[in-house]
Amino acid sequence: MTISTTQNQDRVRRGIALLKEASKGRFENLECPDCLKPGASVWVTNPVPDEYRTWLLCAFCDFHSHVINSGKPAYFTEDRRRADLEERDRAVLNPMVFKKPLE
């Protein structure tokens, strides 16, 4: 399946909309950028000190995406934290040769 530039831009816009919803405190039953059903949810991880990720997942399709936050997101709470995703992030970060410098 080939995705046009316009379709990709629309998908990115819908993904950004999910992040905006998270900043407003909405984390569940959001419109998925792929299937357009209200099954998207927002999760956070803190795989290593001072590193934060925001994950977007859909319960209805295989959509998943994440962003690397530049700092701790305002919506970061323990109840939005997912250990399985955090382990996945850690598995990528730990073997890296060039790590983010400590501030």
In short:
With 103 residues, the chain is of the alpha+beta class.
Write down how many β-strands occur, each being a DSSP E stretch of 2 or more residues: 3
User: What is the overall number of helices?
Assistant: 2
What is the CA-atom radius of gyration, in angstroms?
15 Å
Largest sheet: 3 strands, antiparallel
Mean pLDDT figure = 90
Structural shape: globular
Distance between the termini: 44 Å
Number of domains: 1
Given helix and strand content, the structural type is: alpha+beta
What's the order of the H and E elements? HEEEH
Classify the beta-strand content into a percent band.
15-25%
The strand line-up of the biggest sheet is 1-2-3
> Percent range for helical residues?
25-40%
Poorly predicted tracts of residues: none
Architecture overview:
By secondary structure, the protein is an alpha+beta fold. It contains 2 helices and 3 strands. The protein has one domain. A 3-stranded antiparallel sheet has the order 1-2-3, sandwiched between helices. A hairpin with a 6-residue loop joins β1 (40-45) and β2 (52-58).
Pick out its properties.
single chain; alpha+beta; 3-stranded antiparallel sheet; 2 helices
What is the strand and helix layout of this fold?
Layout: H1 5-23, E1 40-45, E2 52-58, E3 64-69, H2 83-93
Antiparallel strand pairs: 1-2, 2-3
